[in-house]
Amino acid sequence: MYANVRGTRLYFDVDGMGLVPNGGRMEPRPPLFLLHGGPGGDHSSFKTSVNGLADVAQLIYLDHRGSGRSAAAPVANCTLDENIQDLEAVRSYLGLEQIAVLGSSYGGMVAQGYAIRYPQHIDRLILVATAPSFRFLEEARRIVQERGTPDQIRVCEILWSAGFTSVEQLYEYYKTMGPLYSTAFDSDKFEAGWQRGIRNFAQLNSGFGGFLREFDYTERLREIDCPTLVLAGALDWICPPSQSQLIADRISAARLEVFAASAHSIAQDEPEKFMTLVRAFLQERVA
Fold first, then answer.
1. What is the pTM assigned to this prediction?
2. Could you give the number of structural domains in the chain?
3. Containing domain of residue 120, as a range?
4. At what angle do helices 136-147 and 241-250 cross, to 10 degrees?
5. pLDDT averages per 10-residue partition of the chain, 287 residues
């Protein structure tokens, strides 16, 4: 499905009922927007990791502007600010008054910005393996130097310099970094996931060479007052747990859960614990 909003065409998909029959009543389930990583990733990995949440929420998968199955867009227009405004436009397009948002990695940065800018429309927030400012980059570079193999350090130099020139080069990066992204890395599953997904290396370059070096929500996190679940992987190299700790410390209604056996891909590394915590959070009553 597509939403024509703000001069572009955004792909979204919906899984699960918004109204559920229960005896003589129709009970609502919260609409949960799922925001993918990148920049330049897509929603496809969510469909094998969080799709089981359709029993407690109506899942809305969204590909960011110019990403995945959304319409191609000039890279200059595919920014954090545009992604935030696009989320609001799709919310309005679907006629939803309040939404829950789960943002993973870069998607968590979009989610934080949305919660700050549009507090009246967010019911609850789930931030997975993300960071509140550009400062995550310095820490991530240090961790790679300490933990990484020579090949991992080499491919990360392309990321830091925003120097990807092809999808093939991007493939080499993610496959080489796979064991650092996930403690449960599996080559066969990686190959299948790569074939299902659509990736935009120009957007990744634009983020790591531009706006991800500048964004900073640190002083505005206190403005977020909706219930917030912050999930961190203890072994995460790109969005280290210290970044999640900072988020949780600044948001008054936040609860932090650190996954001891997880790296960046928490839903893949500790799926049962991940699903249990997120499902319970979505079912909690908001005071």
1. 0.98
2. 1
3. 2-283
4. 150
5. 98 97 95 98 97 97 98 97 98 98 98 98 98 98 98 98 98 98 98 98 98 98 98 98 98 98 98 98 81
